[in-house]
Specification:
The chain is α+β, with helices and mostly antiparallel strands. The chain has 12 helices and 8 strands. Strands 5-6-8-7 form a 4-stranded mixed β-sheet, covered by helices on one side. Strands 1-2 form a two-stranded antiparallel sheet. A two-stranded antiparallel sheet has the order 3-4. Helix 2 packs parallel to helix 3, helix 4 packs antiparallel against helix 8 and helix 8 packs antiparallel against helix 9.
Length: 332
């Protein structure tokens, strides 16, 4: 750490000298323009390359048993180009794995390919979309999965259930894109200014995105139970109570996301206040199922339990509103 004394001119202007070695390394001279930004904790950041052109990041990886994981990892770290290069040749199995992996990552496309090399390029800039917009898209798909999963379960619609399961891939794709964008914001505060968020907000977005992705997973669980149950008449007597329970859970889920995006603490508290009613409804369904058919009871209870866990994830999302509201007050 280099400590320097603040000086003051007769006119009242404060100034501090810059380290000579640092100025030389970054190419400063008389008349150079520096970008100065203030962070949430009051620290000043000096950027001598604020107007520098973006330099794409490139990574080279070798085919290994962890090839898919390495591609995903480089994508999440913000690399624009991922080159898979083999010493001899890339096998057909490895080619299929590379193509399957790239299909799970938004914007990543194969742009070059030969016997020993495959070049993947992300056609989306690191800050092409705001974290808020990406998260909303992720949530819209997860919310539709939740609604349709319940419909498939109640109506015994296996085709709709299969469709819900297939949509989970899209939720994962948007979650990966969200993580990639958030890391770009952390590494480049100017990108955060563009989107109106600070680095400290990125953790909340990451947590919320993960919880939304988990809501999608719970919806897939419901869809699988719809396929396993098949017979919608097996719990006709329970349909009304399950619909009411789902309605309460879905309302809490929607309120939690609205509270997150609008920083509304009152809405967040409404989600928490719904816990007593939802827990009561869940216990009543659980007791009723224990008195019914042993053949279908466990399947129905598993689906209802997945809805119950979705409510828990909604509460976790609502809990994120308080820290974000506090950050907002600190900035003010």
């Amino acid at each position: 750490m280099d400590l320097r004394k603040v000086q003051r001119t007769n006119s009242g202007t404060f100034f501090v000298t810059l380290p000579k070695n640092w100025a030389g390394r970054v190419g400063l001279d008389k008349g150079s323009v520096l970008a100065i930004t203030e962070s949430i904790d009051g620290c000043l950041s000096i950027d001598p390359q604020h107007d520098a052109e973006y330099k794409p990041l490139s990574a080279v990886i070798r085919p290994t048993p962890y090839l898919s994981r390495e591609i995903v990892g480089k994508y999440l770290l913000g690399y624009d180009e991922i080159r898979v290069e083999a010493r001899n040749n890339i096998s057909s199995e490895e080619r299929a794995l590379i193509k399957e992996t790239s299909s799970r990552l938004i914007g990543l496309e194969i742009v070059e390919e030969d016997f020993a090399r495959i070049v993947l390029q992300c056609l989306l800039g690191p800050t092409a979309s705001s974290p808020e917009k990406i998260l909303k898209r992720e949530y819209n798909i997860a919310a539709s999965m939740h609604r349709d999963g319940l419909t498939a379960f109640l109506e015994g619609d296996t085709s709709l259930a299969q469709n819900v399961i297939a949509r989970d891939v899209e939720v994962n794709r948007f979650y990966f894109l969200l993580v990639r964008t958030l890391r770009a914001v952390i590494q480049n505060p100017r990108a955060g200014e563009k989107f109106g968020i600070h680095s400290i907000d990125c953790l909340d977005y990451r947590l919320c995105g993960s919880l939304v992705e988990t809501i999608g997973d719970r919806s897939v669980e419901i869809a699988h139970k719809a396929i396993a149950l098949r017979d919608s008449d097996a719990f006709r007597m329970m349909a009304r109570s399950i619909k009411m329970f789902h309605s309460r859970v879905f309302e809490a889920q929607e309120t939690a996301l609205k509270a997150f995006f609008t920083h509304n603490v009152i809405l967040a508290e409404e989600v928490r206040d719904a816990r007593i009613k939802i827990e009561k409804m869940f216990r009543e369904i659980e007791l009723s199922l224990n008195k019914r058919s042993a053949e279908f009871g466990p399947i129905i209870l598993a689906a209802v339990s997945s809805m119950h866990r979705i409510f828990s994830h909604s509460v976790d999302i609502a809990d994120l509103v308080m820290p974000r509201e506090s950050h907002k007050e600190v900035r003010a």
